[in-house]
Each structure stands twice: as C-alpha cells, then as structure tokens.
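As a warm-up, study this chain.
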Amino acid sequence: MAAVTRGCRPWGSLLGLLGLVSAAAAAWDLASLRCSLATFCECDFRPDLQGLECDLAQHLAGQHLAKALVVKALKAFVWNPAPTKPLVLSLHGWTGTGKSYVSSLLAHYLFQGGLRSPRVHHFSPVIHFPHPSHIKRYKKDLKSWVQGNLTACGRSLFLFDEMDKMPPGLMEVLRPFLGSSWVVYGTNYRKAIFIFISNTGGEQINQVALEAWRSRRDREEILLQELEPVITRAVLDNPLHGFSRSGIMEERLLDAVVPFFPLQRHHVRHCVFNELAQLGLEPRDEVVQAVLDSTTFFPEYEQLFSSNGCKTVASRIAFFL
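Now compare it with the structure written out below.
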C-alpha cells in the first residue's frame, strides 16, 4: 500500500501538486478553526475525515465494505460531542489486504502526530506479550496502561495487532472500557477508539468471495450481513484468538466487524501503480508485469487471489527496477 500522507494527494504534475499543497493548507486551517469552535478536538486529536475518506478511495484497493464501514463509524463517533461508549472496530481478513494500512491511516488522519502521537498506542503480541506464562502480569500492565492514558486524555487510540496471537484471556481486562454502562475509575473512556486486527475469518471471507466470482456475481454486491456471522463464528471457534474468554464478542461490544476481501490481479496492479507513484516513478509496463508475474495466486485452478495481497509489492518493485 502507498505510504500515508496528510490529505488526499493525486499523482500528477508539479503544478497540480503545488495546487494541492495550497488546498491542504486551507483544509488544515479550516480543521484548526473547527477545532477551536468544537469540543471534539482534545490533546493531539485533530480529525480530518475528508482527507481519510479521500485517501481510502484513492489507495485502498478492493475493499468496498471496509471503506464504507470505517468512514461511517468514524463520522458518527467523531462528530458526537458526548458518545455513550468508545468506538470499537475489529478488522478481519487475509494477509496484505489493507488492515494495517487502514489502522495507520486512522492514526494519521485523527491525530496530529500520527502513529508517533503520544495518544496512539500500538500493541503487538510478539513485542508486548510474548510469554503466555506471564498473563497475570500482562493483564495488570495493560489495564494500568489503558486506564492511565485515558485519565490523561480521553481522546486516545489503542491498536491491537495480530489478535490471533494474543494470549487468551488478556483482552478480558479491556471489557470494562468498551461498553456503555460501565463506570471505570472515573476515566473519560467513552471518547477512546479501540482497533483490533486479525487474520481470523480471512478464509471464510475468501470462500464467500470465491463463490461470488464463480457465480459471476460482482464482489461489490457482497453485503456485510453475509460475512459478519461467519467471521464471528470463526473467532468464537478459535480458542487461541485474543477475544477468547473475554466476553467482548458475546456481549456485542464491537461496533463493527470490518471484513477485508482477498485481492485479485487488478487490485495488485493498482497497488503497484500506487507504490511507483509514491516513489516518484512513472509506471513502466515491464516492471508492473514483472511484479504481477512474481506474485503467487490461489486457488490452484482459478489463480484468482493474491496469496500475500499487496504486502510484498514494495520489495518486489525494488527488485525489478
């Protein structure tokens, strides 16, 4: 996926870029004015939902449901001066389909410092919770970290990556922070955003997309109602998933289950063009074709979906330049 830039940047001439810089500056001034007149801008929180929507439209390939769900949820949440609960999203899908990219966009377009903002907290099981035998300490530390940061600023973003590898039971400590009827130690937790990222459900999403293709049904016709039950069942049936023994899904504390579809050849091509543009390079047919030819597709007979999505596009481009 393309690198994140503040504002939606079309690729083109230098003149167009300069015009966009002026437009971005004007948009930033307008955002600052809105923040000075509204109560939703706190701490480092400077939401630019128009920029987010534009960037998703331009750079996120093949994810009609993710785009719609994320934008709709954020608009309703951000413009509500007194939300009744934090925003809780769970992103599901195959590797390389854009889950981490979307989470980085959220940090970028919601907080002035992006992923480096002191209000953005990113947790990885491999880095932060590597030893299941230390689960009691992890629970205590995570609860203290969330509570302390929400006390400092309610407008905080918590990203939990690779939920498939989280120690089961750890997420239980988050349950009091995610609902609407809890009183959590006096913290203003209702303005927080929690994002959970998982590969669980990816195979089920892939199967629905494959069946749609085989029946000559456009993938944009696939509805959330078709995917949410199978994703939920995949999570609940997986004892190693981070939501296991947490009650989070059973108590319906998620505001949206966001599915990411497997990427087809033309989606990978879109990613190649985006990456070349990000590098300031003109698209060369031989480079684009070389990247596509080196990409593995599945199932074996149809060769329809990229095995790694767009995850390896950048490294492959560097190899073929």
